[in-house]
């Protein structure tokens, strides 16, 4: 099958006629004639230019080179350097799941970009893969269901700060706003599901104020968005992780109290409440764990960086909120490559949609929505 397709696109090894540094290095790699144009694979470009930060979302590809963001779309000759349209003359192609760019115009674009020395840092890849569009149609809800998104930090509290100045509070807020928009668009047909936020701008909120908001809103899910940082491994720490509560200090509601035959008739009322409360605390923790596992599973499908797992922790906002609650750390802002990725609106959008899909999958698995 592969051989047939290769024959169709006239798969020839071609010698380079270009003189730039990039073109000179290309001589060591295969290039291909597609129609009358010479193409080179995206993988070769990444290798030759030493690009470590790149990604793909549906038909769009983006690369970070010398501090500039290069963007294009498969099937299109439109090409952008830092949002400035430069044009590739010939469309980007995808053949056998491999992406190819026309050599000559790409070489021309690359040669206009002056190399900058910093940051030459060990980079890792946070790439984004193809997305599908879930459509949420129905629900089994006969009441309001509140999802409260909590962007970590804000105002005077920056959270972690990357080596090149990106602030955690801003990343958390932007991803959270995009997550809210995504969920609202998905739940258009289910007005019973309300998506709210603890903060929608750069406001400082104490942990206690966040907990109080969750209680006041009677949230069903409290979803905290954070960006990670490591003290000892600032340049290389990588991966995403999601926390669920190891314990809950209280629960504010008892969803359904059924007659429990195991409770002796002479058990005093306080003990009954204690048992009911324990059962619910356990179930709220268990629900949180399930949601955290789904968040990890979905992020692992979409992000090419280490899955650090779903973990139990006694963080204040998890412990003192009486409902299902998780705290996701979407990536390490202290790692310069991840910091560069987290600056990119497309990466933020991809992360937000992935978190949204995780919440939807959780709601489906609990039969809250169909
Ligand atoms: Zn944080």
Structure description:
The protein is α/β, with parallel strands linked by helices and about 375 residues long. The chain has two domains: about 1-110, Copper Amine Oxidase, Chain A, domain 1 (2-Layer Sandwich), CATH 3.30.457.10; about 145-365, Zn-dependent exopeptidases (Aminopeptidase). The protein contains ten helices and 15 strands. It has helices spanning about 1-10, 20-25, 40-50, 105-110, 170-185, 205-215, 270-300, 315-320, 335-345, 345-365; strands at about 30-35, 35-40, 55, 60-65, 70-75, 80, 85, 95, 100, 145-150, 195, 220-230, 240-245, 305-315, 325-330. The model is unreliable at about 1-20, about 115-130 and about 255-265 (pLDDT under 50). The structure holds zinc ion (ZN).
Give the topology, please.
Layout: H1 2-8, H2 21-26, E1 32-34, E2 37-41, H3 42-49, E3 54-57, E4 60-65, E5 68-73, E6 79-81, E7 84-85, E8 93-95, E9 98-102, H4 103-111, E10 145-151, H5 168-186, E11 193-197, H6 207-216, E12 221-228, E13 240-245, H7 269-302, E14 307-313, H8 316-319, E15 324-332, H9 336-343, H10 345-365
Parallel strand pairs: 10-11, 10-12, 12-15, 13-14
Antiparallel strand pairs: 1-2, 2-9, 3-4, 4-5, 5-6, 6-7, 8-9, 13-15
Helix pairs in contact: 5-10, 7-10
The structure holds zinc ion.
